[in-house]
Amino acid sequence: MIIIIHESYLDSDGNALPMSEDTCGIEGCSAPAVKSYSAKVCIQAGLKPANDKAKRVHLCKEHNKELKKATKTDRLLESLGR
């Protein structure tokens, strides 16, 4: 069996990099991430991403729940408009 590893998963010596666990991208939180959303949606929901330049933000279970509560009416109106 031959396993091919893409170059982006190799360090400068050609050794495989370990796969990192995603953590919550909200300032002050280091819980494991369960879902990711665009940074724009997170900011509109009142969450402060740790990295201002990131396009996507990984969220833990608690912050995901906060985001869903904050966007509940928007999601409902969007689904009714379909």
Question: Quick gist of this model?
Answer:
This protein is an alpha+beta fold and 82 residues long.
Instruction: Report helical residue fraction.
Output: 25-40%
User: Which oligomeric form is depicted?
Assistant: single chain
Secondary-structure-based class equals alpha+beta
Mean pLDDT: 84
Anisotropy-based shape: elongated
Topology (SSEs and partners):
Blueprint: E1 35-38, H1 39-44, E2 56-59, H2 61-70, H3 72-80
Antiparallel strand pairs: 1-2
Describe the 3D structure:
The protein has three helices and two strands, in the order E-H-E-H-H. It is of the alpha+beta class. The protein has one domain (21-80). A two-stranded antiparallel ribbon has the order 1-2. The longest helix is centred in the last third of the chain and has 10 residues, at 61-70. The N and C termini lie far apart (48 Å).
Task: Looking at this protein, list some descriptive labels.
30% helix; elongated; alpha+beta
